[in-house]
Specification:
Blueprint (H helix, E strand, L loop, with lengths): L3 H14 L4 E4 L6 H12 L4 E4 L3 H15 L3 E5 L3 H4 L2 H10 L3 E7 L24 E4 L12 E6 L8 H4 L21 E5 L2 E5 L8 H11 L3 E3 L12 H4 L3 H6 L4 E5 L6 H9 L2 E5 L14 E3 L4 E5 L5 H16 L7 H11 L4 E5 L3 H9 L6 E4 L10 H9 L5 E6 H6 L12 E7 L17 H6 L6 H7 L3 E5 L2 H9 L5 E7 L3 H22 L4
Parallel strand pairs: 1-2, 1-3, 3-4, 4-6, 5-6, 7-13, 8-9, 8-10, 10-11, 11-12, 14-15, 14-16, 16-17, 17-19, 18-19
Helix pairs in contact: 1-2, 3-5, 3-14, 11-19, 12-13, 12-18
């Protein structure tokens, strides 16, 4: 049997040779063999080592690096509840098929169920993710999606005299795993079709999807309009009108990834006679998802369009909707999000928080390119968003993030360890859960207490307590000014917007105004 030091060293060496270069470590005792091995590898310049106190945030921080690099990132902790704190990030990685490598330290198997300190059954703790329960060095396969290594470390946990003298990192042969080559199937369709691209693109490379979209030549609805400049603007808003959906009824829809943001778009997809779904997760995670035909990889399209005015109709609807939406000027969450989406500089990264921000950008911003956009759309939670943003920011020269106030407060522990990056974080402050004011439960008794949940906190003061530079803006001109400022380091911008109730009323007015303009402009009244 290998000693704990041997097991840790063999594991880290194998991972380095497999191309894993980023490691996120949370301090602990049982994972000491890994911590020491990682520090030695860092001293040799072989890896990047990030030390994060809170395992929950560490998991999301590693997830952010993985999203930005599209490579496996290891996150390492001690035993017991430390491992359980990874679960939210693991679930997000599982449902988004992100490359997260979870390494948990454990006691030897003989101590399980004996009442030993900090010992629980960590094998299979992350349902849906295969656990490799190792007590000796073994070959590790890194496929797509999260992987869990549970390492049984017996005492002694520190290297002995001979191990201290060992040059265990010499003669490395780094050979990253290559992507699988797939032979594409053929997707044949005839009639008036549409391409709908979910925010996560089904895990496909952005340029691959752009090339596929160009080859199709169909109208595009993109939940992430900041990555597809040719997409139809404001689709989630104008498709909320049933008559507009009928006017634009398609013969077929091609869907890439999951469409999780707008009920209007999902209603539109369901109206099509045929649907073609492209998402590798159907083979494992989303196994009950159906369509006329499903594809695990991007197919080769063979498309015939019957109506030459189909593209013109979509452009006209988008134009009329845009005029109606932008006819009323004023300060609101939607104005703030649209401005951020429009004015961020090219060649930068943007993480978009769950809840209202991501929906407002989808519905109100104009399609563009030039940004690397990210979001946690696996399970779309607000937990760990700051940690995810911080991880992403380490991979870019210039990064931005936008989240709501509750999302900000949910992950405050991340502020204890800021990234070494140029990052501007916009916090949309409406004092509570703004999205609930736009949902059916808005009128229930006790709404503010159980849904709206106003926190009544001074967000700027909270950020300053963590020694973060903060600025508060309350109008569009000030927001434009702070965006234009090329900042070094980490800065937070608190964006104060009107009340949640007022925003909900304004949103309703926008939808009604857009619907009216379209029914008149298209003679649908």
């Amino acid at each position: 049997m290998s000693t704990s030091t041997d097991l840790a060293r063999a594991t880290i060496r194998q991972l380095i040779e497999a191309g894993v270069s980023e490691y996120v470590l949370s301090p602990g005792s049982r994972n000491a063999p890994l911590s020491i091995a990682l520090h030695e590898a860092k001293e040799r310049g072989l890896i990047e080592l990030h030390v994060k106190l809170d395992e929950r945030g560490a998991g999301f921080y590693a997830l952010g690096i993985s999203k930005a690099s599209n490579n496996y990132v290891a996150v390492i902790c001690t035993s017991g509840t430390a491992a359980a704190n990874y679960h939210p990030a693991v679930l997000e990685a599982l449902h988004a098929e992100n490359k997260l490598l979870v390494i948990t330290a454990d006691r030897p198997e003989r101590l399980r169920k004996t009442g030993a300190n900090q010992t629980t059954d960590q094998v299979g703790i992350f349902k849906g993710v295969i656990t490799h329960d190792l007590y000796t060095a073994s070959k590790i396969e890194l496929n797509s999606g999260p992987v869990h290594l549970n390492l049984q470390f017996d005492e002694p946990l520190l290297p002995n005299e001979s191990q201290l003298k060992s040059d265990w990192l010499s003669g490395l042969h780094i050979n990253p795993q290559s992507a699988k080559i797939n032979n594409p199937k053929v997707l044949s369709a005839t009639g008036n079709g549409l391409l709908v691209i979910g925010h996560d693109r089904g895990g496909f490379d952005l340029q691959e999807v752009r090339n596929f979209a160009d080859e199709l030549g169909l109208p595009i609805i993109a939940e992430d309009p900041l990555s597809f400049s040719g997409a139809c603007a404001h689709a989630s808003i104008f498709l909320a009108d049933e008559k507009v959906r009928e006017y634009l009824k398609p013969d077929y829809v091609i869907v890439i990834g999951r469409t999780t943001l707008s009920r209007s778009i999902n209603s539109y997809i369901q109206s099509a006679e045929k649907s073609y779904v492209i998402d590798p997760r159907i083979a494992s995670i989303d196994s009950k998802r159906t369509g006329t035909e499903v594809f695990f990889t991007l197919p080769k399209p063979e498309i015939k369009t019957l109506n030459p005015s189909w593209m013109i109709d979509w452009k006209e609807v988008s134009r009329i909707a845009g005029e109606a939406i932008n006819s009323e000027k004023g300060w609101s969450e939607q104005v703030a999000l649209s401005l951020i989406a429009r004015e961020l500089p090219n060649e930068s990264a943007l993480f978009i928080g769950s809840s209202r921000p991501i929906r407002d950008i989808e519905g109100f911003s104009k399609p563009r390119s030039g940004l690397a956009t990210f979001a946690n759309r696996g399970l779309a939670g607000i937990d760990g968003n700051l940690s995810t943003i911080f991880g992403i920011a380490t991979q870019f020269e210039r990064s931005f993030g936008v989240v709501g106030d509750l999302t900000f407060l949910h992950d405050l522990s991340a502020l204890a360890n800021l990234p070494k990056a140029n990052l501007t974080l916009f916090v949309i402050d409406n004092n509570g859960g703004g999205i609930f004011s736009t949902l059916p439960q808005a009128g229930v008794k006790g709404f503010d207490e159980i849904f709206g949940t106003p926190q009544n906190q001074d967000l700027a003061q909270i950020a300053k307590a963590f020694k973060v530079e903060v600025e508060v803006v309350k109008n569009d001109s000030d927001l434009s000014r702070v965006i234009a400022h090329d900042r070094i380091g980490v800065h937070f911008i608190i964006v104060e917007v009107p009340t949640r109730d007022l925003n909900a009323r304004k949103l309703k007015e926008v939808y009604e105004r857009t619907s009216s303009a379209l029914r008149i402009g298209l003679n649908l009244a």
